[in-house]
């Protein structure tokens, strides 16, 4: 096939390296800046072997987990969005617009609040289950009818599913007498106040989702040209779509379990990446991961300053960034290229 | 033609066709609504026998019951009726002019805009300005969002579909701004604002809520009814309406303003109660057919019944928890929306 013979060009590698360096710089900034600014030298000392000072404590228990959670969730959500946009051929598909995130949240809140389930592993599985159920319903509703799956139908199905789970979640938490800031974490998503254990519990699922996405990437390039073309090129599109959907559920469910329903990363990043690297999903998938991580870390950094000294959950920031983008794409209409 | 009754006045530019069947259905719904009011007044953390409820309504029950009925339950039910009816009519107008069965004030982001206006009011003017001005703030918020929606969805005319998609985006943005406002403010306002954003008629009172909302409903509902002819012609689509001599875009804008005002004033008091504006008009059209003069009164009654019923379940089913009514309207409404999507599956 033509695609396999394509040579890796130097500038593509350099570009990826630059992106990775940007992520590392963002992580460093995320560790250093916040309500208490920490000099970068202290950050370095802390990694070299902390001395138990206040700065080092803040770094190790708060800042580092926070930066890593933002990076993992951002990467997962961006890749999940890219996969969803291909399999639904809908430019505004993402885990949040199609209700996958809200399904996962609802199941977590239900399990933790009303069924007294606890344990990180158990809750992660509950999140995956919620993401799967919600995703399947939306997918089924979006595919019925004479014309099969259309972008409009699946968007509307996703929006109604999201509204449904969102209201139930909100109602459960409010009637439970939860404090406002706790409620908000599960309504818009936040990466603050978590520890490394929570991230470690979901890493295997995120990793599995990423691997599936990378493994499928060449087939996704073909599928993105349309179902008919992919079929005539001998691709088994049912198999590709089901595997990609499984990856979406792993990535989105695991992100929600650790960071709540952070929205719009899955819409913004794939479009930006396609603009820069074209249509080859062997590049799109890794770039989505890298830039998704970068965007969420930066948004989280911004969220510390916008209402100083209070912190805004990062989900609010991503929504504010993402909506203009969403509207631009909705106005343009049409299918993904 | 004996099935129809005509109400016409050339001087006010008013013309209505009233179906006799609609009168029968409305009467039936009215009785149902009255029954629901009595049941809803009777049930709660303290049960009051229906006979005492009726006595209390005419002011002859024993003092304890009288107090509960008069000060606690009745204002809440009246607010439920008013808010439910306004939202339903707002949705009926919107579905008529957007010609999309899936349109409603909440799907289009209008309720979200109104609740943002109200949250802003709570945070900025609560201490200095009377609460009676809150509907103005909510209506202004709703108008601002609608204007933005119209502007962004405009591309040589407004396509219904783009309107819905962009509405989804705008409501997400507005919601985020509300959250930001809430976080940066004091905690006691936070709880209140969040409940407000879900939609709840908990703690409604005569002098604050009923008095504030009643004038709006009393003025806007009759105006909407008298505009029935204009909604009917909008439902024919741009080309037919235009060739029948209607000024399509201008008429649409006026009706939109009416719909937005109704939704805005309802949200100011009841919060962002969702999906009533979607469900009630559909049920009404099923019962009466598409003519708007018939759809409006039936939708209003159905909207009132849905909200009072939802609130009854919300405050009694999980005692001692008082769940916001908006949770229940969404729990019924979202599956209803999916059902509509299923029914119109070949259209999109």
Automatic annotation (TrEMBL), chain B:
Q: From the Swiss-Prot or TrEMBL record, state where the protein is found.
A: Cell membrane
Which residue windows are transmembrane per the record? Answer: 77-98, 107-126, 132-152, 164-190, 253-280, 292-313, 325-342
Q: Which UniProt keywords apply?
A: Cell membrane, Membrane, Transmembrane, Transmembrane helix, Transport
Q: How does it sit in the membrane?
A: Multi-pass membrane protein
Q: Which Gene3D superfamilies match?
A: ABC transporter involved in vitamin B12 uptake, BtuC (1.10.3470.10)
The reply to whether Ion transport figures as a keyword in the UniProt entry is no
InterPro entries to which the protein is assigned, alphabetical: ABC_BtuC-like, ABC_transptr_permease_BtuC
Top-rank taxon of the source lineage equals Bacteria
Q: Which family does it belong to?
A: Belongs to the binding-protein-dependent transport system permease family. FecCD subfamily.
Put simply, this protein is called Iron ABC transporter permease
Source organism (scientific name): Cohnella kolymensis
């Amino acid at each position: 096939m033509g695609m396999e013979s394509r040579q890796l060009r130097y500038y593509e590698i350099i570009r990826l390296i630059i992106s990775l360096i940007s992520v590392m710089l963002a992580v460093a900034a995320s560790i250093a800046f916040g309500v208490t600014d920490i000099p970068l030298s202290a950050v370095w000392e802390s990694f070299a072997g902390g001395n138990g000072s206040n700065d080092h404590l803040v770094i190790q228990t708060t800042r580092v987990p926070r930066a890593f959670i933002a990076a993992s969730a951002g990467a997962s959500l961006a890749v999940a969005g890219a996969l969803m946009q291909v399999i639904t051929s809908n430019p505004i598909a993402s885990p949040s617009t199609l209700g996958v995130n809200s399904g996962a949240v609802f199941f977590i809140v239900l399990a933790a609040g009303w069924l007294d389930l606890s344990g990180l592993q158990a809750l992660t599985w509950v999140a995956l289950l919620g993401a799967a159920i919600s995703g399947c319903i939306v997918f089924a509703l979006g595919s019925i009818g004479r014309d099969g799956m259309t972008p409009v139908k699946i968007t509307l199905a996703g929006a109604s599913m999201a509204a449904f789970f969102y209201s139930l979640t909100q109602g459960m938490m409010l009637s439970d007498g939860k404090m406002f800031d706790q409620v908000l974490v599960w309504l818009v998503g936040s990466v603050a106040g978590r520890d490394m254990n929570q991230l470690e519990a979901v890493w295997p699922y995120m990793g599995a989702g990423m691997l599936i996405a990378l493994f499928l990437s060449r087939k996704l390039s073909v599928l993105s040209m349309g179902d008919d073309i992919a079929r005539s090129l001998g691709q088994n599109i049912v198999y590709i779509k089901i595997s990609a959907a499984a990856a979406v559920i792993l990535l989105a469910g695991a992100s929600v379990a650790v960071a709540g329903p952070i929205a719009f990363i899955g819409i913004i990043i794939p479009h930006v990446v396609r603009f820069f690297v074209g249509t080859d999903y062997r590049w799109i998938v890794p770039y989505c991961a890298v830039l998704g991580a970068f965007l969420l870390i930066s948004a989280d950094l911004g969220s510390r300053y916008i209402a100083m000294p209070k912190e805004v959950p990062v989900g609010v920031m991503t929504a504010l960034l993402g909506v203009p983008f969403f509207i631009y794409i909705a106005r343009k209409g049409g299918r993904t290229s | 033609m004996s099935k129809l009754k005509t109400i016409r006045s050339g001087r006010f530019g008013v013309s209505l066709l009233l179906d006799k069947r609609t009168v029968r259905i409305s009467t039936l719904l009215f009785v149902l609504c009255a029954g629901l009011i009595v049941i809803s007044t009777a049930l709660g953390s303290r049960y009051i026998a229906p006979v005492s409820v009726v006595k209390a309504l005419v002011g002859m029950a024993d003092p304890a019951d009288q107090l509960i009925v008069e000060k606690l339950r009745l204002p809440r039910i009246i607010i439920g009726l008013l808010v439910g009816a306004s939202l339903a009519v707002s949705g009926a107008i919107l579905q008529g002019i957007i010609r999309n069965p899936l349109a409603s004030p909440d799907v289009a982001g209008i309720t979200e805009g109104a609740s943002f206006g109200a949250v802003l009011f709570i945070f900025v003017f609560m201490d200095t300005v009377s609460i009676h001005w809150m509907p103005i703030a909510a209506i202004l918020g709703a108008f601002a969002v609608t204007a933005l929606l119209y502007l962004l969805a405009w591309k040589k005319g407004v396509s219904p579909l783009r309107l819905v998609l962009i509405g989804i985006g705008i409501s997400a943005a507005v919601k985020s701004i509300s959250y930001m406002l809430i976080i940066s403010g004091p905690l006691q306002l936070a709880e209140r604002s969040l409940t407000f954003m879900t939609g709840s008629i908990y703690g409604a009172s005569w002098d604050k809520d009923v008095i504030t909302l009643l004038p709006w409903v009393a003025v806007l509902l009759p105006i909407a009814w008298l505009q029935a002819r204009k909604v009917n012609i909008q439902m024919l689509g741009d080309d037919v309406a235009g060739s029948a001599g209607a000024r399509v875009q201008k008429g649409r804008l006026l009706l939109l303003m009416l719909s937005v005002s109704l939704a805005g004033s309802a949200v100011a008091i009841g919060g962002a109660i969702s999906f009533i504006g979607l469900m009630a008009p559909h049920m009404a059209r099923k019962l009466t057919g598409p003519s708007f003069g018939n759809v409006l009164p039936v939708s209003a009654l159905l909207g009132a019944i849905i909200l009072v019923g939802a609130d009854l379940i919300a405050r009694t089913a999980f005692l001692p928890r008082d769940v916001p009514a908006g949770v229940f309207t969404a729990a019924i409404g979202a599956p209803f929306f999916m059902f509509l999507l299923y029914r119109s599956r070949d259209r999109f």
